[in-house]
Structure formats: structure tokens, C-alpha cells
Amino acid sequence: MHSNIDTLFSNMWDDYVTITPSAHKIHALLAGEENTNDIVNDHVAFRTFALDKTRLDKLAAHFLALGYEAKGDYNFEAKKLTAKHFEHPDDTKPKVFISELRVDELSDQAQAIIKKLVEQMPDSMVKADNFLYSGKHWEVSKAEYDTLLNESEYAAWMAAWGFRANHFTVSVNYLTRTNELADVNTLLKEAGFVLNTSGGEIKGGPEVYLAQSSTMADRADVAFSDETVAIPSCFYEFAQRYEMPDGKLYTGFVAASADKIFESTNAK
Ligand code: OOG
Ligand code: NI
């Protein structure tokens, strides 16, 4: 387990931008506009398989050990996903959103592939310091990837990319030039970045106290066991939070919006 939150996120960021060059460019663009390198992260998201060795709680343990607390629970029926979000008492630390695929709801064929992958991972790996930016611990063929892709884009993404930040999220509230998500989207589109339009460019809004947008994932090379192919990697998200009637900023997530954000790793 990691002993320092900032080092953990900094290592995760380095791994993430390696396969998500557009996030690096957008970060530089916003930092240039803002005239500071401090772009505050609203949250970072992780994915996993709900199998004994890899379930959500195993990832969460890394954050609980650093003082994070479990907050919201979410269910995505059609995508067969369960998720939780975690917050740190120091609210300048990014929130964490972890989802897991209910593998036992997939076809026998998909379950067999996923179990075969996870079996290759040493038991001790989930506790390693670098687990949350360690990638995959198995050999997977392009045909296995395609079989999973047919049934669950999430399963295919996990099989190819493994354990690493799926996305970082810019907190629009902490920007200084604008605090409006629509303005950020305009800036990104003018610079040529492609946004996820599933469910509209802006998901949610003041009525649910959270507005979100995201880029479509970059493509990066994955070394499958038989060939190397460029497939969707990771994306960058932008979140604007609104005050609730009690005057506090909403800190949760919105399932209907998250359902569409997941689709940012679909092939364009
Ligand atoms: C997570 C999608 C949900 C959000 O902010 O609602 C999410 C994922 O794509 O793994 O991050
Ligand atoms: Ni997110």
C-alpha cells in the first residue's frame, strides 16, 4: 500500500498520460489559460472485475488505508456494474469512483475468458504499492478481447488495460477563467478535441447538482499475446458541481450521467 496520497495520484497520473496523450495536452491547455500548473482533480476512476481476487474492495483498501471513506453506492443494471465512491476528509484530495463488473452475470464463454486472465495474476499483486497503476497481469489474445467486446465493452477494456486510472477529472469549480462547463467544452472543441456526445455533451446539470462532460478515449497500442493493436485507452473528464439547498457543494455522483460517461471508452 502507498503511504502518501499525493505520490500515489502523481504516479497514477504519469501512467495515465502515457496512454492518454490528449489528457496531457488538455491539462497543458488549461494550465496555460489559468497561468498555473494546479488543475484540481474532482475525482479519479477505476474499473475492475468482481471476482474474489480483484473485487472493488481490494482496490478500495488502498484508499481506505490513506484515510478515504466510503460514501455513495451505484448500480448499472444494463452494464452489469456495481460502483462506490470514496471521499477524503481533506476535501482538496480527489474523490475516487470505483466500479466492478458482475462477471457472474456474463455468458459462460465470457466468464471463462475473464477467469482465465485473473488466474494468471499472483494473489499478492492487489496489495502491491503500485497495484493501482500496474496494468494487466495476464496474457490476452486479440480474439479473446474481441469476444469480450461483443458482450461488454467494459470487460474488453479491463482485459486489455488492467488496473490503472480510467480517467482523471478536472474540477471546473476550481478553474479561475471560467466555472462553466459549457465554456470548457467550447475551448476543447475549438482546440480539436472530440467530446463524448452519448446522452448529450453535458450530462446532468444544476437539477442533479452535477454536470459532467468527457473526451472520447484516445487510442493506444496494446500488446495482445498474438499481435499489437491500437484500441481505446483512457479519457479525460470535466465536472462542475452545484450547491445544494443547504449551501454545500454536492459531492456524490449521478448514476444516469455515469452510465453515459462509461461509454467514453467505446470505439468512436
Ligand atoms: C466510470 C464512469 C463514471 C462518473 O464520473 O460518473 C464516472 C468509468 O468509465 O469507469 O466516472
Ligand atoms: Ni468520472
From TrEMBL:
Coiled coil: none annotated. Its cofactor is Fe(2+). Signal peptide: none annotated. It is an enzyme of class 1 (oxidoreductase). Transmembrane segments: none annotated. Its EC number is 1.13.11.93. Gene3D superfamilies: 3.10.180.50. GO terms for molecular function: dioxygenase activity; transaminase activity. CDD domains: VOC_like (cd16350). Keywords: Aminotransferase, Dioxygenase, Iron, Oxidoreductase, Transferase. InterPro entries: HGLS. It holds the Pfam family HGLS. Belongs to the 2-oxoadipate dioxygenase/decarboxylase family. This is 2-oxoadipate dioxygenase/decarboxylase. It comes from Alteromonas mediterranea (strain DSM 17117 / CIP 110805 / LMG 28347 / Deep ecotype).
